[in-house]
């Protein structure tokens, strides 16, 4: 634990202006990001007597080893920069809402020629209209199933659509009237887009006009004695009304608003959001967060707004946002929301009427969510703490291993040897810091040598970054050898050391890991191994394993860490093997990326035709220069067969199409099976 006075800046050094500040620990990892109207006044609060600080704030300033800041012009800029840095650095001491799932949206892909209605999760895409979020995907599908009777918009995937267009037969929905079948040109692109627009208008809450139009058409059909059409319109109206009943009217003035409520205690807070569109509740979502710093309800609301609208623009930000408490100050937040929407946004506390009554409902949901979370979480916190304490006691560590890294080796009979590194912090997965390695030092199967190589490469990076002052970096590293250096002060992931290294294996693997650390001069990181056969825990230099009770929470945590490392390694190894099996002659050309490979195949039609092309003809492909063309020609010539194979049964020359031997070209140029007609029929069967 650091003494805050050791890195406290002089008062005259801190500007008295708006800005954003970062606290870093001894490894230069950003652990907290904050903003302030006056940096001088705000930072002074952190360097007062430790006894007067909130316990979590005290932990943060004693964990930190330095502080730095960036001056901005306005508080709105400070809010935007704070949000960007929190997303970029993921600081451990900032308020982070734990969302246990990605909420599904009803999406209409208006950016396609034939818009498609589907369920979508994750990041929003440009040109797609979203409705929701919904609590469950089945709720979306129920609604869509009702609406497809009236708005038969396409719902199929691109593959199904192309297959139907190729065969000239629509899918089942096209036959039962729940799709207008644009794949077989039953409807024009313009009419189908108009149908999708009507669907979006109905989902956006503009229902009254459409229903009145249908009712008028139904009456006209009845007057003209077109009873079948009138009955169909009647059923359409009933389907729409049934869909509308799923979302009761809560605000009679067709308001578009988001209502945010907070339930909190000293340790945690639960946030609930109701999305109201057209006066109806269209979606609900919620988060729970640890209060790792001294925050007010207004601060929690501000963080919730950043979480909700940080990546949203346009109509995704409603005209009205109702909250239980206003951020302090409120003007920058309101201006930020207005900028996101592109028009004025009202941020206020509801005082009376329907909106106040609905806010009370949202607050009750937040209280119930917090109570439910605490019921489930209480045992989790206790269990994880007990597990870490049991591991520390069993391995004779000075303190609980808050960061554990586990390594596993995976291969298939000595081929495609890879390794995985998974990270657990405070007993929970830290997937953003998982890493994968390719074994490069030797060929074949040797788990002990592989483990030594992986540990050496990982901690050599740690030492290099530790020694490099002011040149920390970060980035993806799939093989452990890239050197990505940035000037913004961020540490590489490999620069943050664990308290415990776990290897999948017994004495030999543990000895190899310990030897690698000793060769690098690292003696402050503990090592152990977990053998699969009897789940024994091995430590370096001991002839007998440490045996933890089968009911031990510490053993259970080590098993989870080991199994996760095994899963991650197996997944990577299978990916590499599949990629190797799919490899073709062009994959051997150095410097030829996927884009140019696709361009070459598209231009020539096949590798066989590309192999017979001249250098000048290859240079005609966009992006391919003469030197690259010469390299391609040489690589394909080296990979070409020495002589064509001859089918002894038919006397035909058997051609290799894209590296697949054993085929002969048919009349249309497509490869067909070699052999007699009877043999070919047998092969096809």
TrEMBL record:
Q: Which SMART domains match?
A: GIYc (SM00465), HhH1 (SM00278)
Q: Name one GO cellular component term.
A: excinuclease repair complex
Q: Report the residue ranges that make up the UVR domain in this protein.
A: 208-243
Highest taxon of the source?
Answer: Bacteria
Keywords in alphabetical order: Coiled coil, Cytoplasm, DNA damage, DNA excision, DNA repair, Excision nuclease, SOS response
Pfam families noted in UniProt = GIY-YIG, HHH_5, UVR, UvrC_RNaseH, UvrC_RNaseH_dom
This protein is called UvrABC system protein C
User: Native species of this protein?
Assistant: Streptomyces spongiae
UniProt gene name: uvrC
